[in-house]
C-alpha cells in the first residue's frame, strides 16, 4: 500500500530564447527527475508527473553527457526514461489538485525559467500547498517555479524564506549566463528570498519549514531524502 502520492511538476519548454533572439535547446535534467523519483518510490510513495498542457519535455542532452553530468548520468537517463514511459501521458497541470498529494517536487533543466516561473496553474497549486504545510521541493532551476506563487496583490509568497538554487556563478561556468533574459539566483534575491549559496556544482541543500531546495543536480538525491525524512 502506498504511503501517499508525490507530484513531480515538469516544465513543458524545449527551447530557451536568449536576449539576442537565438534559441537554446532545453529539456528535463535526467538526475533531477530520476533521483527524486527513485527515492520516493523506494520509500513507498506513488509518484505522478504533470506539466503545463501535459506536454512531455525532451531530455536535456547535456544531462546525458558524462563530461557534463558525471559518470552516473547513464543510469539517471535510463531511470528517467523508464519512469516517464511507465507513467504514460503526463497529467495536465490545470487539471491537478494538490489535495491528492503529500508533496510536490520541482526539478530543473532550464525549462522552469521559460514557463513555470509565471504559470497560473502552478501558482494556484503552490499557494494551496504552502498554506496547508505540504512539502515543496525544488532543485537547480526548479526554484524558478516558486516565482509563480504570488498573491492577488502580486506579492511573492516565498519572500523572506531561506532557499538555494542554481547560482549565477554556476550559470556562468555552464556557459549560459551571457544572453540569459535573467539569472535565477539574482532574481530570487531581488524578490526577497534569503538565497544561500554553496560551492559551485557541489551538493548543497537548504530546508526552511516545508520548503526544501537543492542548488544543482548533485543536490537532487539529498532533496528527496530530506523530504522523505520529514514525511516520516
TrEMBL record:
Residue stretches making up the DJ-1/PfpI domain: 32-228
Keyword terms, alphabetized: Glutamine amidotransferase, Lyase, Stress response, Transferase
Protein known as: Type 1 glutamine amidotransferase domain-containing protein
Entry annotated with the keyword Transport: no
A Pfam entry, by short name: DJ-1_PfpI
GO cellular component: cytoplasm
Family named by the database record: Belongs to the peptidase C56 family. HSP31-like subfamily.
GO biological process, one term: methylglyoxal catabolic process to D-lactate via S-lactoyl-glutathione
Gene Ontology molecular-function annotations: glyoxalase III activity; transferase activity
Amino acid at each position: 500500500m502506498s504511503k501517499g502520492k508525490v507530484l513531480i511538476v515538469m516544465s513543458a519548454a524545449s527551447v530557451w530564447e536568449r536576449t539576442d533572439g537565438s534559441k537554446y535547446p532545453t529539456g528535463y535534467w535526467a538526475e533531477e527527475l530520476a533521483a527524486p523519483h527513485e527515492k520516493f518510490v523506494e520509500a513507498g510513495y506513488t509518484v505522478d508527473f504533470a506539466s503545463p498542457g501535459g506536454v512531455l519535455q525532451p531530455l536535456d542532452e547535456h544531462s546525458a553527457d558524462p563530461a557534463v553530468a558525471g559518470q552516473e548520468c547513464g543510469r539517471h537517463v535510463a531511470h528517467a526514461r523508464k519512469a516517464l514511459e511507465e507513467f504514460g501521458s503526463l497529467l495536465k497541470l490545470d487539471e491537478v489538485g494538490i489535495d491528492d498529494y503529500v508533496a510536490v517536487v520541482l526539478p530543473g533543466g532550464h525549462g522552469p525559467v521559460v514557463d513555470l516561473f509565471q504559470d497560473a496553474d502552478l501558482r494556484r497549486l503552490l499557494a494551496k500547498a504552502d498554506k496547508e504545510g505540504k512539502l515543496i521541493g525544488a532543485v537547480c532551476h526548479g526554484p524558478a517555479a516558486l516565482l509563480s506563487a504570488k498573491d492577488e496583490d502580486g506579492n511573492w509568497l516565498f519572500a523572506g524564506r531561506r532557499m538555494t538554487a542554481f547560482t549565477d556563478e554556476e550559470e556562468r561556468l555552464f556557459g549560459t549566463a551571457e544572453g540569459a533574459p535573467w539569472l535565477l539566483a539574482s532574481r530570487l534575491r531581488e524578490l526577497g528570498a534569503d538565497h544561500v549559496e554553496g560551492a559551485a556544482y557541489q551538493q548543497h541543500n537548504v530546508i526552511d519549514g516545508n520548503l526544501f531546495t537543492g542548488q544543482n543536480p548533485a543536490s537532487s538525491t539529498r532533496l528527496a531524502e530530506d523530504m522523505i525524512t520529514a514525511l516520516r
